Structure to design on (328 residues):
């Protein structure tokens, strides 16, 4: 598998993954009808870096890394990960999350925060727990799930420095 | 005291308040050296609405209201409040927060969230508690305080609907 930073020319291969996941409405805090143009801004322009993971010329997954809060919060980063439906169940989210933690350290971040994990997304919560993220907040009914109605959203957090 | 929505022409009166508070670095997640131009975008352009409170032609305080997370999170708003140093200790933060909750309900929001309250900002934490906000998250060492080093940041949350 090859890992590299995304260029704008790659977005044709990322958009179908983004669109499928966001249109489902059960994981990301983006409008379900987010357009391709908006997605390009959200996934490529706003973040500090965006990576893709590819095999045999197929994009299997992608993630972004950005600063979560400016000024007094700028030592904490935020990431978002997307796996192509054809590549699920193969540990790619783990691979991407571990890669993102290395990149975060290289960029000088001291912690990583996920702001809005739907509590109903149990697979993600279990995975982030396994990878060392603690649930540090629970936002009551903050996530409007397409079939379950209002569910809680979790804030998850990991300090990245060794020994801290 | 008069309350009204801010226009761009008002920013000359808001900028000194913004600059003093943000340059201190102990409350807002904005860079301490935020420029006037950046402040205008953050305080007037990015939010959904921005209000000011004035008396005898003097701006005493200002706040913004915006959607905190898009899509599945768009029923939760976020606000930020600033009080001019000359107007502190007169209950204006309470007045503004109560006003913002009314506006939030008018705009159709169901909850209000503060994402990043420095735990060292004890006066604010006490006030938000008094006004019905619960501490629903604690981000370890997420706030770099100018004199105390890394302190925790709190996530505070209030459901706005009556009876909920």
């Amino acid at each position: 598998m090859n890992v590299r930073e995304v260029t704008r020319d790659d977005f044709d291969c990322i958009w179908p993954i983004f669109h499928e996941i966001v249109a489902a409405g059960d994981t990301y805090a983006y409008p379900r009808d987010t357009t391709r143009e908006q997605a390009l801004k959200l996934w490529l322009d706003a973040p500090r870096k965006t990576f893709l993971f590819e095999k045999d010329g197929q994009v299997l997954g992608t993630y972004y890394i950005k600063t979560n809060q400016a000024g007094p919060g700028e030592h904490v980063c935020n990431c978002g990960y997307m796996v192509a439906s054809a590549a699920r169940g193969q540990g790619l989210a783990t691979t991407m999350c571990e890669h993102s933690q290395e990149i975060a350290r290289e960029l000088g971040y001291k912690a990583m925060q996920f702001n809005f994990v739907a509590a109903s997304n149990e697979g993600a919560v279990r995975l982030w727990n396994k990878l060392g993220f603690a649930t540090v907040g629970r936002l009551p009914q903050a996530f409007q799930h397409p079939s379950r109605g209002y569910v809680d959203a979790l804030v998850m957090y990991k300090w990245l420095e060794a020994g801290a």
Q: What stands out?
A: The domain at 2-159 of chain B is CATH 3.40.630.30 (Aminopeptidase).
